[in-house]
Please model this.
Amino acid sequence: MNSPSPTPILATARSRWTARQTAIVGTPGESWTYNGGATALLARLIARGTGRALHDYAKHALFEPLGLGPTEWGRDARGVEFAASGLRMAPRDLARIGVMLLANGEWQGQPVVPADWLQASFAPAVGMPDGRHYGYHWYLGANAMADGSGVRWEETVSAIGNGGQRLYLLPRLGLVVAITAGNYDAPDQWRPPITVLRDVLLPALQS
Model:
């Protein structure tokens, strides 16, 4: 998504990722383009604002309150986390994050993420070329599900990662789906996770 300030682009050079500034190519907020550099910039702001490394802060604010198991976050030669990628955790822990999100940011009755922030995060911020929308790092769309009298479109909030990593949230169904895969950079990497959701899980729920 374009921003009012020059857009940072993430580049790799000798295993170091850097952000550099380029000219704005369109009116901010009117078009969407994936940009890992924007995520890297956001991570640096979090690290500076909290005084903690990104992974340390994530453990403190999110992973430990949820009781997650071991996590790992890839780093560059300077020891800075690759904010747009490289975070590893067990699928059940990824699913646990999804359960917390569907519970309006609470886990076992305790607040973890402010509910008003989640509401803002899941609101459409800009349209995408394929008809979906993009929120604050969330892909917003719908998936078809037969309900006996026709097809109903289920609102779906998705986190999407390279290789086929997915976290699907279907609020009306109270459904969380976590998928990990290793089809990195493959042009059809999107097929297995959406096939699992549309052709296996959703039909099973209607039977």
Summary: The chain has a mean pLDDT of 88.
